[in-house]
From TrEMBL:
It holds the Pfam family Acetyltransf_3. Residues 19-178 form the N-acetyltransferase domain. InterPro entries: Acyl_CoA_acyltransferase, GNAT_dom, N-acetyltransferase. The lineage of its organism: Bacteria, Pseudomonadati, Bacteroidota, Cytophagia, Cytophagales. Gene3D superfamilies: 3.40.630.30. This is GNAT family N-acetyltransferase.
Length: 178
């Protein structure tokens, strides 16, 4: 049984464990889930991602967390905070992101998870969080709006230079200092 760092009514957030690989790999290999990413992930890519997230958690106190549906203890994907340092006029910055399996789409889980992560960020003393998504990724942009984020601008994401079809990204932000 996993110990959760924090939870929402339906979701538990934790660091990554070796047993997550068999459940997270198919999510990352799904072309529909990964439509707005540079590429689908191999099992090795997924393991590297999980290891990077655990290292980020050790260093920063946050990451894109492994997220379980509390009712069934199933891993639904990743929702959390990241540290972005790519070359831009708004980096370095903390961003929020999500990637969940299709089975859990359209149930409000990404929105619920994003709200919980913004609360976690506030507790950590993070004053501003950004979110970015390809301008065609209307589902993610809708989540950004639902959690109270405001449109900032459109930019070309440098990590997607090889994918001009999805490189143009909408950037949203929210101030957490109160």
């Amino acid at each position: 049984m996993s110990t959760y760092l924090f939870s929402s009514p339906r979701l538990g957030f934790r660091t990554w464990q070796n047993f997550d690989l068999e459940h997270f790999s198919p999510i990352n290999a799904d072309p529909e889930v990964m439509r707005f990413f540079a590429k689908t992930f191999t099992q090795e890519d997924t393991l590297a991602f999980m290891n990077r997230m655990n290292k980020m958690y050790e260093e920063k106190g946050y990451c894109y967390f492994a997220v379980d549906l509390l009712e069934t203890k199933e891993l639904i994907g990743a929702i959390g905070l990241g540290w972005k340092t790519f070359e831009s006029d708004f980096t370095p910055c903390v961003d929020i992101g999500w990637r969940i399996g299709k089975k859990w789409w359209n149930k409000g889980l990404a929105t619920e998870g994003a709200q919980a992560c913004l609360g976690f960020a506030r507790q950590k003393g993070i004053s501003q969080v950004v979110a970015m998504a390809s301008v065609g990724n209307l589902a993610s942009i809708q989540i950004m709006k639902k959690v109270g984020m405001e449109f900032w601008k459109v930019f070309d994401f440098p990590d997607l230079a090889d994918r001009p079809d999805i490189q143009s990204c909408a950037l949203y932000h929210i101030s957490l200092s109160k």
